[in-house]
Amino acid sequence: MTGKTARIDFRANTRNVPPAMVAATQKSARTALAKRADVVREFGEEQWQLLRKAGHDLRMHALTHLDEYLALLEEKVTAAGGQVHWARNAEEANRIVLDIASRHGVRNVVKVKSMVTEEIELNHALEGRGIRVYETDLGEFIVQLAGQRPSHITAPALHMTKEEIADLFREKLKVKTEPDPRQLTEIARKLLREEFLGADMGISGGNFLVAETGTLILVTNEGNGRMCTSLPPVHVAIVGIEKILPDWDSAAVMLKLLARSVSGSKITAYNTFITGVREGGPREFHLVLLDNGRTRILRDETARETLACIRCGACMNICPVYNHVGGHAYGAVYPGPIGSILTPQLLGTQAAGGLTFASTLCGACSEICPVMIPITEILLHLRRRCMEGDELESSSAPAGIRAAARALQYVMGSPALYRLAGRLGRTLLAPLRHGDWIHRMPAPLDRWTLSRPFPAPQGDFLGWWRTRTKNTGHGGTSHE
Amino acid sequence: MSKENPAREEIFARVRSALKPVPASPLSPLPPSARFAPRRAEALEKEIERMLREVERLSGLTRKVRGREEFAGAFGKLVKDEGVRTAVLSDHPLYREYGLKDLLQGLEVEILPPDSSRKRIAGCDLGITVADAALPETGTSLLRTTQGQPDFMSLLPRVHLVLVPPEALLADIHQAFSLAKDDRHFVLVSGCSRTADIEKVLTLGVHGPKSFHVWICS
């Protein structure tokens, strides 16, 4: 997301989703959700809700005091011998990393999976300077080798079958292998081991930053995160400014929430805690703090909670829409429900406003979110922004739709016009109805009747309302 | 260092303007609802059982070892089962108690010091560490990184053995953080390195150890 704002057409992207992609997405989501349900049950539902509340409240506390915590973090990282850099946007972040790389004559980079580096398209920038970049997370390594984009934030290659991966390895790595996950993993292990030991620079993102001590937290399973941040002589971490936690008690809460929500584990294999530089570790530690649209999200009090996200992917796993279209349909780095609210805010509604409609508003995402982000409320808020515009952005709706909405508003606001329009509508629809149903309507209303019939109006609303009030003896609150 | 950095100043200005209704203050305390009560420990024996059970759930191998003789027997078996020819270990008082160096020599295992080249450690069969803290709730060992116990000792070798003295068991991660939060580097290790990135099939030993042992040593 480097400010190139090609419009994301979600509807078009969903047209040719391969059935295998849908099957793989659903299988992966089902597995993750079942395991998550088990660990949450073991933790105790009531306790889990308290933990979510704590997670939400501490994330929101950190965000509403972001300037203070960022200043504290900078002070602590610097005191521990680390170097803090500030990047207003993707270009600036990439330039900072390239400068560090060129100062050290870096030719080979090993990388830990990081959504933020996908967001700023760092690999592209590094490769443009002739630097070789190895993604070292197995899923990300596969996706990089295939020249694709991850389809899930914590399971990047979930859309590929073991047969496809074996073909890919045979073609690109010139190895003999069966389509066996263990064999394929072993091949990646051998190849990347050499790269870890020979790399000039390690690049990571960060799951959290603890302001109290200036500590970077990395949550991983494969061990590549530890390799990339321990073995090369220089470690650069690129982290969004919103990833900050006030203190270590907060970190304890977040780690309990994160692993359980990601994969249904109580904890991941490795949690690494890095504060500045240390003897025997990388000689230099650079922390690049990235804005890239985050302060703009912070301005909007309703949508601000988007920034509380800890990138667990649970909202994707539970989302009926995501489960039917897969991650690539969202056309951006962050897919699923969180992508539907984050991407339009990062790229602007002109480019990505369509994503706010990529939801049934069923609310499952808000219910599963470990930090209780009200995703559906934010979706509605952003839909309103798309249509009407607000102080942050002008309307992105086509002029025709806006004119129609204004006209509708005018008609609905006047009882006489409303009655007239009702009569006109019924007259126009009369030739189309067959009993209680309308089977075919003219464009653009045929979008509805192409898939199901439309119920024909049964008289006028105001008349119905009057009779109803009389019959029930009170206002419109009764339910029949 | 970067106090005159225009990017820094602009980001701070943007943050402050976005948050304008919030008064600038010295750090305000977190609301009580943002806190979560730590878990309480049960009796030691129960905690040990829980620790071992959780490690096994993470595909780790466990045992309880009492005394020098039992340790020697168990260790000989591990060396044989895992085909260990080289080992890297730090200089910890616990090893002396068990006479670990003599044991290794007796088993004809070559001992690498922790400051060996990374390449050598990467080719080494067994890394032995001592947990600075252990969390029964999740089967986790906390390893503080020091010059005598560098991070890659528990990461590069094919097999990782963690020795846990019972007094290292803590009730919750909160206590573990109180112990290590001022360190420049530490890790929480829970099981072997693993992935489910290919078709959700659990695969052990991705980049780190392929085999993981936790022994409670009393």
Short description:
The complex is a heterodimer of chains A (480) and B (218). With 480 residues, chain A is an alpha/beta fold.
Report the CATH superfamily of chain B.
NagB/RpiA/CoA transferase-like
Strand order, main sheet of chain B: write it out.
Answer: 1-11-7-4-2-3
Q: What is the CA-based Rg of chain A, rounded?
A: 26 Å
Shape of chain A: globular
**Share of β-strand residues of chain A:** 5-15%
| Rounded average pLDDT of chain B | 92
CATH fold topology of chain B: Rossmann fold
Q: SSE string of chain B, helix = H, strand = E?
A: HHEHEHHEHEEEEHEEEE
The major sheet of chain A is characterized as: 6 strands, parallel
Q: Identify low-pLDDT runs of chain B.
A: none
Count of strand segments of chain A: 13
**SS class of chain B:** alpha/beta
Query: What is the CATH superfamily label of the domain at 65-292 in chain A?
Result: NagB/RpiA/CoA transferase-like
What does this structure look like?
The complex is a heterodimer of chains A (480) and B (218). Chain A has 480 residues and is of the alpha/beta class. Among the domains of chain A are: 65-292, 3-Layer(aba) Sandwich (Rossmann fold), CATH 3.40.50; 399-472, no CATH class. Chain A is built from 23 helices and 13 strands. Chain A has a six-stranded parallel sheet with strand order 1-10-7-4-2-3, sandwiched between helices. The longest helix of chain A is centred in the N-terminal third of the chain and has 25 residues, at 19-43. Chain A is globular. Chain B is α/β, with parallel strands linked by helices and 218 residues long. The longest helix of chain B is centred in the middle third of the chain and has 16 residues, at 67-82. The radius of gyration of chain B is 22 Å and the shape is globular. The model of chain B has no long low-confidence stretch (mean pLDDT 92). Classes of the chains: A alpha/beta (480), B alpha/beta (218). Chains A and B meet through helix 2, helix 3, helix 4, strand 1 and helix 8 of A and helix 1, helix 6, helix 7, strand 8 and strand 9 of B.
